[in-house]
Design brief:
Elements: E1 6-7, H1 9-17, E2 26-33, E3 39-46, E4 53-57, E5 60-64, E6 76-82, E7 85-91, E8 97-98, E9 104-106
Parallel strand pairs: 1-6, 2-5
Antiparallel strand pairs: 2-3, 3-9, 4-5, 6-7, 8-9
Length: about 110
């Protein structure tokens, strides 16, 4: 049984601030081949589909498609507001390495 990813309260708060649910949207986290380390995250606002795993909190949703789910087992989805910019970040215990951009990783 896969352990689903966790979403921090800060990530749900940011989705609330931008009004994602008010627009019928959710934060979609997907894993695709590519990037400088073999895999990369695709993070965007998108409409949920019936096939998605839906993680809900504070009236907001984060959705993950079934193909991406194994790559995100037990990961933590957060929102960081740093000097380099504000962005959603993923702390993925399955990634054996990642690159400086924070969106590419290998397993």
């Amino acid at each position: 049984m896969l352990l689903p990813p966790k979403v921090t309260p800060r990530a749900f708060e940011r989705l609330d601030e931008i009004g994602a649910a008010d627009q019928g949207m959710a934060l979609r986290i997907a894993v695709e081949g590519g990037g400088c380390s073999g895999f990369q995250y695709d993070i965007k606002l998108d409409a949920p589909t019936p096939e998605d795993m839906i993680l809900e909190g504070q009236g907001q949703k984060v959705v993950i498609d079934s193909a991406s789910l194994p790559f995100l087992e037990n990961a933590v989805i957060d929102f960081a507001d740093e000097l380099i910019g504000a962005r959603f970040v993923i702390n993925n215990p399955n990634a054996t390495s990642s690159c400086g951009c924070g969106t590419s990783f290998s397993i």
